[in-house]
Amino acid sequence: MAVLFAACDSDDDNGPDPDVDPIILSGTQSSPLVLENIFTNPAASDYIVEGTFTIAAGVTVEPGVRITMTPGARIDINSSGSLSAVGTEDNPIFIEGEQDARGYWDFIRFQSNNPNNRLEHCVISHGGGSSLSNRQAAVTLVNNAQLSMVNTVIQESMRNGLIVTNTDNRLPEFENNIVTNCEQFPIAIRPHQLSSIDESTDFTTGNGFNQIAVGGSSVSSSVTVNRAAGPYFFDGTTSFESSAEIGPGTMIEMGPGARLEVRSTGSLSINGTATERVTITGAQAAKGYWDFIYFNDSNSPNNQILYADISYGGGSSLSNRTGIISSRGSSFFAMGNSSITNSMRYGITLGNSSTWEDLGDNEFSGNELGDIND
Q: What are the domain boundaries of the chain?
């Protein structure tokens, strides 16, 4: 049972007594609850979270509410609960530490697939205190949780700003957010959530790494990588088992040994333009820093690389994968108006039965073992 404590106003109906204490939130909330804006003073805390406040029902936070988090405090939305915190531009919702210190409290964790989970016009500060696996952020999604986040600020996290841990997590709406001054990544997702990202969310200032981290995994659904406000950081191996498209102006920085694989059922279209080229490069400007883009027996006619600059890969010594662009089996890809530079091995390595279509105006330079290995 949740613990809700507050003093009572013994006066008339002219508003809360200035001596009324904020309400304490703790324990488990198992029935629907609306958190109202208690105080007219916008700087006054309406609610204080102590320990873990577990939400097992629908909780709604009204505009203007200020929630103060005590040391190590947590808001945990379990599978039967939901949290809808929707403020306005003039009356945002504040969730912040009792003290102005990074990591003062732990996290808001969504475990729920409820479509009512929403953070809008919220300012979330001083979280990220937990070192537990998959909870090293101010806001985290686990299990099959979904969350819409719009016009929201996450700032001053001791670790990451937002972590989306699982391939089943969803971000139905994600736009016009600011994630800043976090000690690690502002945003960390799986490839499955890439289609939710666009350049309206700003994550480019004050973070330990001003990138969106993308953890490697296999993706069986279609994915679009849209241009973001800054670079993506791809780590590990991302395998596309369906169609994948990288849109104009997108910048991807590959982690050490990182790989993009296009499997036989998948395709990859890198679609830059003359004015908005796609960049895929190493997170460090070192030859062989990352491995390859690998067409693994994919002969889709949609495999194409247009107006793209690809560099500092070629780190793999595996057979048929010694180029920044590599292929095996009956793979096909077309390439035009693109550059492949600074590979530790080859620019392109083709499998015996693979085909690449040269659409013209491609450039190669700085590839240690040669430009094309066929």
A: 1-191, 216-374
